[in-house]
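Case study 2.
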Amino acid sequence: MATVKKSNKKKIIAAISIVLVIAIIGTVIGVSAKSNKKETVSLTTIGTGEISESVSATGTVSAGTTKEYKVGAVATVKEVFVKVGDKVTGDKLATFDTSALDSQRKQLSSTYQQAKKSYKQSVSDQKTAKKNLADVNSQIEDAQKQLEKLEREAVTQATSRVTITFPSTTTTTRPTTTRPTTAPTSATTTTTTEPVTYPATVEGLVQALTDLVNTLNRLSNDIETTNALVRVVMQEIANQLENGNLDPERIAQAVGDAVAKAIKEGIIDETKLIIESGVAVDMIEAAVKNIDWSAVGSSIASSPNVQLATAQLNLAALYAQQKVFQLEASDDTVYAKKQVMDSAKSALDAVDDANAELEAGWTAAFDGTITACDIYPGETTSLLASGITLENLDSMVVTLSLGEYDIHKVKVGMPATINSAYGTYSGEIISKAPVATGGSSGSILDSVGSMAGISGLSSLTSSGAGVEVQVSVDNPDENIIAGFDADVTIAVGDHQNIVTVPIESIVLQKTGTYVYLYNEEDKTVSKTLIETGAVSDSAYEVKSGIKAGDKIVSTPSSDYKEDTFEVKVK
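Prediction:
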């Protein structure tokens, strides 16, 4: 056995020690590096507080309380009771004939009701379509399994050299049924067009049947009736193709007869069709005839296995139904109809406001002097560039323009604070216009401002759409000068003992308002959607999403790559 000298033992021990130290250092560095990968955040604990909500905007100071009476709708001036220079004290200024406006309002009301009905129907259809989409997906899965089974059997039959030959032409016996009553001749007149040729592939067949199913879908708002139509039409098409009939005219005629028979026998509920049954049959025939079945149906019609051909057509029809239900189940259709409904409601509200003002006639809102009068009895107001101007030359006012996100919070009589370059004054809202004026950019500005807790941005631009609001100035002096700008703050609400979140902890996105909620158990934060209410220059009211006692990231970064991730708390 070899003998190791003591000096060598010391060297070996020293070497091992160095290796251990390096390993320990490496481990520490690795742990430290891993730790350094975590985001370092500061947390804020959610609590309750109060928010004194206000709307702020910049306006122009004018000499005297001024109100311009303008007509934003069609009406006829009946009487004008004032002229330039007249001093008034709550007097009637003018009256109007609003009969033309009444007619316009009825039309807008009808449009709104139709849009509202269409939106509600689309919401209902979406729910039904989602259910039917789930059902048809299940049917597709079963049909695919059945088709695979038949294809395996077809392979077995092919090895035995068994084939089935379809005749090139087949004489079919038309059902002896009477079609439902058709619409007048003008409504059923058809034009002859060349059938549309689809690719002779499975995809081509699916597209052809999708176009056909879309036509059937437009014939009824009732899903069950639509499904019955699809079943009858597809079954008859399958029958015709199985018999070797690829002529669009003959297939269309057979399908029309089958649908007419199904309506007569109650298989298809005639009362659920949105047009007369005879017209519906003609539309179905036209849609079927519009497909070049010799192309898309040839592979199915020439199949050596009738069951296999039927299964292929059935699966293609299910895929077509799936595409229709996917469209109806999407949010895009519902959103588009909601936009139409909201636009119709806004137009109706604007006309209602104008109608109420003109029906009551113009009355002096305060004591003052008529400084302009450009309306005359018998004149149609739609031709007017201006109306009547009333001013109180013994007082000062600030005129503001508020956007749609702020104007609904403001009411006549609310207290306000006015800040000029050289003084602060109290006042109140003395008037609010019934309609908005200006361009479209104000709505965008106020939308962004509202999310950021800043109101009245539209008043900073000359093109911003807004509603004119006038604020009185109590006890004005030489330091508030007409023609200059002044900042106005309107107190619109005082909210006590509510859950609040600091404004710097908010993440604003197009999809909503978020915070990063801390999970103490696994040391992670998660992007969390919250619903906000009142807002001040430093905090938001939280209505849902988080609660008092929760911890959130104090100032979240805009560079976070994930919605949930581990953090290191300061």
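DSSP finds 13 helices and 19 strands in the chain.
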